[in-house]
Structures
1.
Amino acid sequence: IRRILRTVCTPYCLFNCCVQLFGCSAAAQVKTSRETKGQFLSVNMAFSVGVMSAMYLTKGITGAHLNPAVSLSFCVLGQVQWGRLVPYCLSQLLGAYVASALVYLVYYDAIMDFSGGDLTVYGPNETASIFATYPSEYMTLGRSFLDQVVGTGMLMLCILCLGEKRNTPAPAELIPPIVAVIVLGISMSMSGNCGAAINPARDLGPRLFTLTAGWGTEVFTCYDYWFWVPLVAPPIGGVMGTFMYLIFIEWHLPDPDQPDNDSALSISETIKQPGPTWEKDVELKSSHF
Amino acid sequence: IRRILRTVCTPYCLFNCCVQLFGCSAAAQVKTSRETKGQFLSVNMAFSVGVMSAMYLTKGITGAHLNPAVSLSFCVLGQVQWGRLVPYCLSQLLGAYVASALVYLVYYDAIMDFSGGDLTVYGPNETASIFATYPSEYMTLGRSFLDQVVGTGMLMLCILCLGEKRNTPAPAELIPPIVAVIVLGISMSMSGNCGAAINPARDLGPRLFTLTAGWGTEVFTCYDYWFWVPLVAPPIGGVMGTFMYLIFIEWHLPDPDQPDNDSALSISETIKQPGPTWEKDVELKSSHF
Amino acid sequence: IRRILRTVCTPYCLFNCCVQLFGCSAAAQVKTSRETKGQFLSVNMAFSVGVMSAMYLTKGITGAHLNPAVSLSFCVLGQVQWGRLVPYCLSQLLGAYVASALVYLVYYDAIMDFSGGDLTVYGPNETASIFATYPSEYMTLGRSFLDQVVGTGMLMLCILCLGEKRNTPAPAELIPPIVAVIVLGISMSMSGNCGAAINPARDLGPRLFTLTAGWGTEVFTCYDYWFWVPLVAPPIGGVMGTFMYLIFIEWHLPDPDQPDNDSALSISETIKQPGPTWEKDVELKSSHF
Amino acid sequence: IRRILRTVCTPYCLFNCCVQLFGCSAAAQVKTSRETKGQFLSVNMAFSVGVMSAMYLTKGITGAHLNPAVSLSFCVLGQVQWGRLVPYCLSQLLGAYVASALVYLVYYDAIMDFSGGDLTVYGPNETASIFATYPSEYMTLGRSFLDQVVGTGMLMLCILCLGEKRNTPAPAELIPPIVAVIVLGISMSMSGNCGAAINPARDLGPRLFTLTAGWGTEVFTCYDYWFWVPLVAPPIGGVMGTFMYLIFIEWHLPDPDQPDNDSALSISETIKQPGPTWEKDVELKSSHF
C-alpha cells in the first residue's frame, strides 16, 4: 500500500502540478496585466509547454497519464488496473490543487491589485477564471457538455496513434512536444465555449482551491451549478475517442509482421481484434503524402 | 469493392475530418469571440496542428493524401491508380462535411449569439467564413484563380522534397510536423486574398454543409459564383507544382548510388529521367549551408 | 590558470552574450516601436531562440551552464568544482554586459528617438526595462522574492530531467530547442510580476551597463533597492528546484540495469541514493500516456 | 560552362525564390489587410518557414547557401571556389526578383486597393516595404550599417556551429527547421531599425523589381541613397561572424579523436588551426547544462 501510494501520488501529483503551474500562471499574468503582458494565445502556449515539461518529468515513471479522462480510457483499454484509477485521480487532483495555491501565492499582489481585493466569479474584474474554467454566458448546459466530450475525444484520438508502430509512429523521445502541440491545437480551437478543461482534475483542483481561498461557494453554484460538466463530460469523451480510434484506425492496421519487442509502444496486444484485418495496399503505401 | 470502400473511406474521411475540426473550430472561436479568444494567427496554427494530427492518425494507412489536389498530383506521378482518385476525393469531401457539422453543433450557441440568429454570407456578423473560404471584396476572378494556383503549387513543391533521400530528407517520423509548418507558412502568406483553401474538399465540404444548415444558396452564388475557384484552381496548381519540382529539383539529383530499399520514400523510380544527370559537385556538397 | 581563464571565460561569456543579444534586442525593438514591430510574446520568443542558439554554440565546450543559478545547482550536485563557480559567474556577467553594450549601440538612435534623449527608469518613456528587469508597481518585496524562487525552481526541475536515461530522455541533439521551449514557457507564465530574470547574470550585467551608460544610479536604487532580488532569489530557487527533482523524481527511478557508458547524460552517479529504490511497475510502463 | 550554369542557377534561384515568396507574400497580406490578417510576427514567421522549405528543397544539391553574405563567408573559409561566388550571387538575385514579381501578380488587386493605385515609398499607404527593406525615419547611416553587420554576424555565428560534430551538433535532418528558428529570432530582434535584410540578394532583387514595376527610382534614392547599406554591410558582417566563430569556438574545440568519415559536416579540415588546442575538461563535460 505505502509503496503504491508513494509511486503513484508523487509523480502524478507533480505532473498535474507542473501543467497547472505553467498554465494558471500564464492566465494570471495575462489577466492581471490586462493583456499587456501576453494574450489569449500565451495562455494556450503556456499550458502546452507545461504538458511537455510534465511529460519529460514523469513519463518514464508513471506513463504520463495526462488526466483522469485519459487514465479512465486506459482502464477501459485494459492497460491499467481498475483499482488504481481512484488513487491516480486523487493524486492528479492534489497536484492541481497545490499548483493553484502556489500560483495564488506568487500572483497574490497582482490579483489583489487587479480585482481591488474583491475575489469574484462575475464581472470585468473577476479572477476566478484564472484558476478553473467557466462557460461563456450564451452557453446552454447541453452544448457545454458536447463541447467537453468533443474536445476530450479529439485529444484521445490524436494521442493514441502516436505510439503505434504499424501506423506512423512519432519518435518516442519527441512524444512530449508532439502531445504538447496537440493540446495547443485543442485549446486554440475548443476553448471558445467553456475554456477547454478536457480534464476533471485540472478543473476541480483549482475550483476547490478558489473555494477555500476566498472566492466563496459561487465558484460551484455559478452558471446553474455548471461545475459538474468538466468533471463528467471529459471521461465520456475520452472513452468515446478511444473507441473511435479503435474502430476507425486500430482495427484497420495490418497484423504485425514481426513480434514487437518493445511492447510499451503498442496498444494492440491487450485488445482482441474482432474485425477483419486490413489488406495491405502496396500502391497506397508507396506514396507517403 | 467493399474492401476498397472500407479502407479508402474511413481513413480519408477521418483525415479531412480531423483537419477541419481543428481549423474550423478555431475559426469559430476567433470569429464568435470577436478576436478576444484568439486571432487570425490562431486559426492558421490550428489548421496546421490539425494537419499534423491527421497525418499521424492516418499516414501509415493511406499515405496521407492531404487533399484532392495532392491526390491528383500523385496520380499524375503514377503513384496512385487513376481509378482510385474519385473515391478518395469523395471520402475527403465527406470528412470535411462531417467535421463542419460537428463544429456547427459545438459552436451552435456561440454562432447564434454572434450572428443574432441570422446566418449570412455578407456583413459584419457574417458567419459563413467560419466554414468555407470567400474572397476579399477587391479580388477579381482571375487573381483569385492565380492565388489558388500559386498557393497549391507552393504546397506541392515544398512537400515533395521532404522524402527524397538523395536530397535533404526530413526524418520520416517527423514529416507530419514539418508538413504542418509548411501549411502554416502558406496560410500566413497566401490567405490574404481568398483564405488559402488550396484544397477542394476543405472548401466544398463545408460549403455544402452551410448550404444545408441554413445559410442558403448564397454560399454558392455570392461573389458571382466564386465557389468554383477553390475547386478548380488547386488541382491545376498542384500538378504545376509537381512538374516544377520534377524540372527544377528531381532531375538534377544524382543517380542513386545504391538501390533504395525503402522505395516508399522515393519518387524517382516511377518516372523516366529524360534529362542529363546532374554531376555531383564535391566542393558544393562539402558546405552544408 | 591561463588555460582555465581561456576555456572558461570565452564560451561562458559568449553564451550569455548570445542570449542577451537576442532577448534585449527584441525588447528594444518592441519598446521603441511602441509594439508595432512585435509584442510581449516576441520578446519571450527571442530570449528563447537566444537560449537555443547559445546552447548549440557552447554546450559541447562548457556544458552550457545557462546561468549562475544553474551553475550553483551543479556545484551542489557535485558535478562542478566549487572553485570554478566564481570565474564562471563572472564570465557570464561579462557576456551579459558586453551584449547590453552592443544592443545599446545598435538601437541607440531608436532609444534616443523613443525617450527623447532622457534615459529614465520610470514613466511612459522609460527605457531601462529594455536591459534589466524591474518589478510591477504593486509588488511587495517578499512576493518578488517568491516569484524569482518559483521561476528558477521550475527551470531547474524541468531541465534536469531531460538527460535522464532511466526516465523519458529528450534526444541529446535536440536538448537546446527543448530547453528553449521551457524558457519560453517560464517567461510567458512567470514574467507578469517582475520580468522573469531567473538569472543573476542576465539581470546584473545589463543593470551595470545601464548604470555606466547614462541611466544613473536609479537603476539600482529604484523600487527601494529592488535590484538584489534577482541576484539572490534565483540561486535559492535553483537549488530548491534541484532538491525537488532529486526527492520527487530522481530517487524514484529504477536502478540502471546496465552500466551507462555515456556518463555525461546521467546525474545519478555522483549522488548517493539514500532512499529506497523504486519498484519497476510493468503495467504502468506499458502505457505511455 | 552550361553545366555549371544549370546546376548553379536553378537551385540557387529556387532557394531565394521560395524564401521570398513566403516572406513577401506574408508582408503583402499583413500590409494590405491593415494587420487584420496577420501581424508583424506573421511576417517574421513566414520568412522563417520559407527558409526551412527552401533548405529542404535545395540543400542536398547546393549546400543551401542562404544568401550572398553566407556564400562569401564560405569562400573565405576555403570551402567554395572564389570563381563561383559571382554566379551564385546572380542566381540568388534572380530568384528574389522572380519571386517578387510573382508576389506582385498574386497581390496586385490587394496592393491597388490598399494604395489607391499610387505606388509610393513614403506615407501611410506606402507599399514598397512589402518587397525591399527601408530604414526607420530616425536612423542614421552609420547605425543602419552597424545594425546589418551585427545581424548578419549573429546569423553566421549561430549557423556555423550547427554541423560541428565536436561541439553539440544538431541532427543533420533537422538543420532546416533549426536554421529557420534562428532566422526567426534574428528577425524578431534585429528588424526594428531597418527590417533585417541581412541578405543582399533578398534586398536588391525586390528593390530592382519595384524599380521596374512602377514605384520609380525613389526606391533607390530614398533615405539618401540608403539602398547600398543592405548590399555592403551583410557580407562584412558575415565574414566578421565567421571569424568570431573561428576565434571563440572552433579553435577551442578538441582535436577529433577519430577521423571524421563525414567530412561534409566539418569545417575544421580546411582551416589550419594556429592556436593552442583546447584541453578536454571531463568534469565540465560531465554536466550538460
2.
Amino acid sequence: MNFASDNVSPLCPEILSALEHEAYGNAPAYGADETSRQLDAAFSELFDREVAVVPVATGTAANCISLSALVSPFGGIVCHHEAHINEDESTGVAFFTGGAKLMPVDGPAAKLEADNLDAFLASRVDRGVHSVAPECVAITQATELGTVYTADEVAAIGAICKKRDLRLFMDGARFANAVAHLGCHPADITWKAGVDAISFGATKNGAQAVDAIVLFDTSLRGRVEQARKRSGHLYSKHRYLASQLLAYVKDDLWLRNARHANGAARTLCDMLVSHGATLAHAVEGNELFVRLAPELAQRMRDAGALFHPWPSLGADIYRFVTAWNTDIAQISELNDRITRN
Amino acid sequence: MNFASDNVSPLCPEILSALEHEAYGNAPAYGADETSRQLDAAFSELFDREVAVVPVATGTAANCISLSALVSPFGGIVCHHEAHINEDESTGVAFFTGGAKLMPVDGPAAKLEADNLDAFLASRVDRGVHSVAPECVAITQATELGTVYTADEVAAIGAICKKRDLRLFMDGARFANAVAHLGCHPADITWKAGVDAISFGATKNGAQAVDAIVLFDTSLRGRVEQARKRSGHLYSKHRYLASQLLAYVKDDLWLRNARHANGAARTLCDMLVSHGATLAHAVEGNELFVRLAPELAQRMRDAGALFHPWPSLGADIYRFVTAWNTDIAQISELNDRITRN
Amino acid sequence: MNFASDNVSPLCPEILSALEHEAYGNAPAYGADETSRQLDAAFSELFDREVAVVPVATGTAANCISLSALVSPFGGIVCHHEAHINEDESTGVAFFTGGAKLMPVDGPAAKLEADNLDAFLASRVDRGVHSVAPECVAITQATELGTVYTADEVAAIGAICKKRDLRLFMDGARFANAVAHLGCHPADITWKAGVDAISFGATKNGAQAVDAIVLFDTSLRGRVEQARKRSGHLYSKHRYLASQLLAYVKDDLWLRNARHANGAARTLCDMLVSHGATLAHAVEGNELFVRLAPELAQRMRDAGALFHPWPSLGADIYRFVTAWNTDIAQISELNDRITRN
Amino acid sequence: MNFASDNVSPLCPEILSALEHEAYGNAPAYGADETSRQLDAAFSELFDREVAVVPVATGTAANCISLSALVSPFGGIVCHHEAHINEDESTGVAFFTGGAKLMPVDGPAAKLEADNLDAFLASRVDRGVHSVAPECVAITQATELGTVYTADEVAAIGAICKKRDLRLFMDGARFANAVAHLGCHPADITWKAGVDAISFGATKNGAQAVDAIVLFDTSLRGRVEQARKRSGHLYSKHRYLASQLLAYVKDDLWLRNARHANGAARTLCDMLVSHGATLAHAVEGNELFVRLAPELAQRMRDAGALFHPWPSLGADIYRFVTAWNTDIAQISELNDRITRN
C-alpha cells in the first residue's frame, strides 16, 4: 500500500516485453537502429502532426534540455512556484541553459492563470540589458498538485505567449494522466494550444526510465540533440529508450495505465473522504492532497499505508499518489482496516 | 557479423533477469530501495576497500560528473589526445566542470607514459591566474585503441600525480576488458595505484545502460550526487540501475563477459592476420585496429562484416570491436567466406 | 539638476589627481606595482582587521565574483526582492556561480528582517539533492530604496547566518552613504556583525570606476582572484584601480563625499515635502523615493530637474538620487522655480 | 628601462586629457551620454564601413565576450597554440561561451598559415554530436610573438573561413602595432579580409584601460551587449571608456603611439644584435624575442634593464617589449652601459 509516489511502481509488463524483445541480436548504436527510427512517425501520428522526438531517461533531463533550446542564457522562464523545475530539479535549469532565470508566479492549485500571467508579464519593467526578460512560459500538465489545465486554459496561456513572443513549454511528466482526465486529443492541449515543446513522461506511468522530448517546432532538434549528447543523455544502446516509448504509445497503453491510476485516485479519495478527510485540491489526475485529522493519519499508517506529509500546503496535509499498478482491492482492504481500528 | 562497436550488442541474459526481478512490487525511489542500498557493499567487496558508488546510465555522464568533483572551473585535465573525454563527448567536460580545460598529450597506442607526463607537467610555466594549472590526470583503461595499462604503468602515473598534487581519474568504460586481460585484482590498477575515482563501465559489456561512478575518495560522494541530480542523471526508479550493476558484478559476470569479448578479439585478430592484415596496435582488450589491403577490406564487407574505417590512424586502418555476445562460429564462417571469395 | 542617478556624476578631483599621479613612469602590471600593494594595508586599517582586497571596475563584477567564492553551483542565495543582484544584474549571479539560485524574500523598505529571514529559512523543506539549499544571505547597505541597516540589524542577520551555517555577503555599492548615515565604524556593520565579504563601492561616490571586493575571510582570496582573471576583470594597469581606491579612503574622502550626498538628499527631501511630496521610504542615504502629485512632477520637470518614475513602488512614485557633486544652491534654485511656476 | 611589457606603461597625455575633460558636469550613465554616442560613427569612419562598437576595459573581456557571440556552447575555436585566449586567459573562453573548446594548431612565429589551417579543418572527422565542430577561427594581430599577418595572409584565412562557413575573429590587442607596421588601411586586414569582429586594443598602447569590441557584423550587437552586462563589463560611467577610445583614434594617436613603439623595438633590436643577440622571430611590432648569451643577459640586467625570459621558446630566449613611451635615449644609454661593462 505504497502511495508515496508513482515512482515507486515497477515497469509494466508491456514495457518489460519491449525490452525483452530487444534482448537478442545486435543493432546500430546511438539511435540509428530500426526501433529508434520509428519514434518520429509514432509520435507524429499520436499528435496528428509532424514532430521530432528525442528520448532521454529522466524528467529533469527532458525538462532542462528542452528549455535550453527555448531560451537564451540571458532570459527568464515564467513558471508556477510549485513547478518541478523550480522546486525539484536543483539548479538544473540554470545549468542547462547557461544561466536563464526562473520567474515563479502564483496561482491556485499550482496552475498559472492566463489573466494573472498576462498581468505579471505586463508589470515587468524592461530595463534593457540590466533586467531579465521573460522568454518562455513553462506549465506542468498535470500539475504538481494533481490538477489539470483544460484545453481552453492552455490555449489562453498559449495566446498570451504568442502575443508577447514567448515560447511555451509543457512539463508533461504526468501528461498521460491529464489526457486521461480530459478525454481530449493530445493535440488539443499541446501544439494546437500553442505549445512549442513538451517533455512527454513515461517513467511515472509504467516505463522503466524514459521521457520523450517532443518538439512541435522541429527546427529545435539539432540544438536539442547537441545538448543531449554533451550532458551525457544520449544512450549508446538507444533502442532501449525507443522500445519503451513505442510500447508506451502502442494500443493506448499510456492512456490505459493513466486511466487506471486516475481511477484508483478517485477510489482512494472517496474512501478517505468517507472517513472525514477533506480535499486540499480537486483530484483530477493520480495525486491526492488531503487534510487528515492526526488520528486518521495515524490509523492509516498503522494500517500499512505509505504516504508523505506535504508541509508546504499546511501542517495536516498529506499527499497520496496512485499508479498504473495500484491495486483497487488494497484500497478496500485499507478501508476495512481503518474502519476496524 | 557486426564489429562496428560493442555498443551494438544487446543486454545479456543475466542483466535481463535482474530487470525482470524488479518488474513486480513497489520500492522506494531515488536509491532508497533495498537493491540500491547493496551497491556500496558489493563494490567495496569487489575493490577490497570502502568505496562510494553512484550509478548513472552513460559513460559520458560517469566521466563528466566524476571530473566535476575532481577539478575546479579554473583547472586543467591532462589526458591523451585520443581520450573519449577529448574526442567523443562534445564539450561535456567544460559543461560539467564549469570550464575546466582538457590538456591533451601524446603517447603510443593512446596511453600516457609516466615519463612523458612528468616532462609535460614540468614544462608547464605557471603564470598564476593567467594560465591554467593541471589539477587532474585522466587515463582510459582499456584505452580507446584497445591497449591496456599494466598495474605498474598506472602506479607510475599515480606516483607522479601524488608528487604533483594532482587527482587521478580513470575512464573505465572497458575496465572489465582490461582486468580480464591483465588477470589482476581490480584494486591493483585503481586505488592501490593512486586512482581517486573511476567510471566503471557496464553498458558496453552486457548491461542495458549503466556505468558506475566508483569513488575511492568517498568524501566526494556529496558533490557527485549533487552534480548527478542537477544534470538529470538521478533515476527515480533507481533500482533499475542498481540491479544491473549488482548482476554485473555477481559471480564475475563482468569478467566472464569481458574474457569472452577479449578472446573473440584475439580469434578475429588471428584470422585477419592469416589473411594478410597487420596490427596497428597490440590487441589487449576487445578492440582491433588493423591495416587491411583495400581488396581484403572489400572481401570482408562482401562477406557481411560490419566495421569502421579509422582515418585518424591512417587511410587503410580499420577498427573491429567484439563483445560479450560475439559468436566465435561466425568468425569461422567469415573466414570461410573470405577465403572462398 | 540631474537626479537620475549617482552614476551620472563625474569622478571627483581627488580621484582625478590620483590618476594623474600615475600618468608618468612605468610600473609593474597586474597588481605588482607599489600602489596596488598598499591596498591590503589601507583597507585593513580602515576595517581594523586583516582583510584581502581585490579591486574590480564595476559593482556587478564585485558582487558576482564575491558570490562565486561564497556559494557552490548547487546553492541558494537569499536576498531581498529589490536587491541589485536580483533585479539589475541580468543573469550574472547564475553565470559567475555556475548556477546558484537567487531566493528573493520580502521586507519593508528593501531590508531583510532577521525574524522573517529566520522564518523563511526554517520553512525551507530540505529535500536533499532535489531542492536548493540556501548557502548565503546577501544584503545591500545602503539598500536599493535608500534605507540603511543599523549595526544591530546586520548583527541579527549575521547571527542567523552563523546559526544556520550560511555565508553573509554585503553589497556595498553605497556603503559609504550607510556609514555616513550611521556614524559608525565600518567594522561595526561588517565583520563584527558577521559579514564574510563586501563589495565596497566607490564608483557611485566619486570614483571613475572601481569597486573593491573586501574579504574578511581572507582564505577566499585565491578563488576570488581566479574568478576575477577568467572573467576579464583583472586590469593589466592595475594601479589605475588601486590609486582610485587609495585616494578614496584617504583622509575620509569616501565619507566626506557620502556625507555631502546624504545632506543634499535631506535638503532636497525637505524642499519636496514643503511642496506637498510625501516619502515612500525614510531618507537615510542619498536616495529619495517620494510620491509626487502629477502637477508637481510636471513642474519639477519644467524646472529642469531630471529624475525617474519608480513604477514598482507605485504609479506616482519617483526616485531622486544625489551625489558627491550635487549643488545645494541648485536645489534652492529648483525650489524657486517650482515656487514661481 | 622597463621592457617587461607594454602594460607597464602609463596612460598617455592625450588619454589623460580626455579623462580630465569628463571630470566635470553630469552625464547619462551606461552609454547614453554624448561622448559614448559618438563611438559608432568614429569607428565606422576609421574602418570605412558601418560598425558597432562595444567598449570594455580589458582584452580578456573583449576577446571572450566577442567569441561568446560567434560560437555556440558546442563549438570549437581554432587558434594558434600561442594565442592569448589559449595561454593567458585562464578558462575564460569556456566560461563566456558556455563550454566552447579551443582547438590549438601550430604555425611559424605564432601565425596560422592558411594552407595548414585548411588541412587541419579538412582532417577533422565529423562525428556529429559526439565531436566538436569548429565554428570560428581566431587570429591575433600582431601576434603574441611580435609578428604581423599581411593583408593577403588574413584574406587567405578569411577565404577558408568563408568556404567552410566559419566565423573569423581577430584579437587586436596590438592591432595598432600591426597597422603601423603594414602601413595599410585598417579595413584591409579586417572586414575586407573576412573578419567578423575584432577586439581593438588600446590599453597596451597608451590608454588607461579600454579595448573596443568592433563588430563588422552589426547584428551581433544585442548579444554582445547582453553578455557584457551580465559579466559585469558594462561601465555605469561609460563615458570614461568612450572618451579614451575617441581620443585614441583622434588625429591618428593610436598609430602615432604604435609607430613610436615599433620604432623603439627596431632600435632596441639593432642595439641588441650589435652585441651578438640573434632574433628568434622577425621584429614586426613592438615585441622582440631574442637569443642572448647568458653573459649578455646578465650585463643587460646589471645595466638596469627589465625583461622576461621566454622559456617556451627556448632556454636562452628573452622577450623585450617597447611601448608608446619608450625613451630612445634610454636605449642609447643602455647600449653605453653594456658596452662599458
